[in-house]
Amino acid sequence: KKRIFSAIQPSGSVTLGNYLGALKNWAALQDSYDCIFALADLHTITVRQEPAKLRHNTLEAYALLLSCGIDPKRSPFFLQSHVPAHSQLAWILDCYTQFGELQRMTQFKDKSQKHADNINAGLFTYPSLMAADILLYQADLVPVGEDQTQHVELTRNIAERFNNAYSPTFTMPDALVLKGGRRVMSLQDPTRKMSKSDENVNGCVYVLDKPEDIMRKFKRAITDSEAKVHYAEGKAGINNLMDIYACVTGKSYEEIEHDFDGKGYGDFKQAVGEAVVEHLRPIQERFAQYSSDKAYLQQCWDAGAEQVSRIANRTLQKVMKKVGFVL
Ligand code: ATP
Ligand code: MG
Description:
- It is an enzyme of class 6 (ligase).
- The chain is mainly α.
- The protein has two domains: about 5-175 and about 295-325, HUPs (Rossmann fold), CATH 3.40.50.620; about 210-290, Tyrosyl-Transfer RNA Synthetase (Orthogonal Bundle).
- The protein contains 13 helices and five strands.
- The longest helix has 30 residues, at about 295-325.
- The relative contact order is 0.15.
- The mean pLDDT is about 95.
- Bound molecules: adenosine-5'-triphosphate and magnesium ion.
- Adenosine-5'-triphosphate (ATP) binds next to helix 1.
């Protein structure tokens, strides 16, 4: 079986973008692949985090991912900070990553603009930590939204460089971008992607939002003045709503255009909101159960860390030996 590694940062409440771009598919992948899942908490501190909030977000995200169908009995699901090999390999890979490569990362450009008062070294070297996350487990595939494909590409370059310098050490990973929900945009600014760390909460639908909040956000979504539901260039707002609707209902663009022919944006937004609420309802119900049982969550992540540490340490030892460290 091919191995999959995937992670999400507990950097805020999980958004509909995270869900449609990534999480929605993770549960099903467990049937065909050998999956390892993580909460990438080390990555979150590239941006200032309030400690109590980070702890809260971590627990919440863990319970939510279980609610989305991650089965910790089949797939180890751990917290990145519990497995020191991530930080250890990241340092080594830093030394095999070029300054220029990191400078070209669009996420660094975006985030350093957004957090101009805190352009720290970690924000810059984030991609080599992400490379370590993936390469430690010799992952074949990394399911991500489209915003992360550049990082997986860099991971391949680092792996190839290391393999060439020594001998084959790392499996070359491929990004797995599933169609639908590749890139969910902000409801308030459809030219920007929906992000957990966005300050404009009206632009983001959170998986745990109350139904009335979801409805309100969709009703206020920015669209255009044409008032015709169809997919076209220059209609970023409507295109985004159509993508979301297609993703949660399984309908094609043609079906949607047909269903809303002659109807206004108000009706369409209402329908999108309702479809999202219905889609998220069972997840929210499961969340209420999981989140109330911290002892169970802890048991799951402890077991996960123990399992993956064996794989991670094996790779790390190999790397250390090749580099020339005395073991
Ligand atoms: P942050 O703003 O802190 O970076 P984020 O919302 O970008 O948070 P991440 O934890 O960085 O979330 O990414 C988790 C997963 O969600 C990744 O696979 C990423 O590709 C995917 N993802 C994030 N935003 C979107 C989006 N708007 N559309 C589709 N997929 C997304
Ligand atoms: Mg992100």
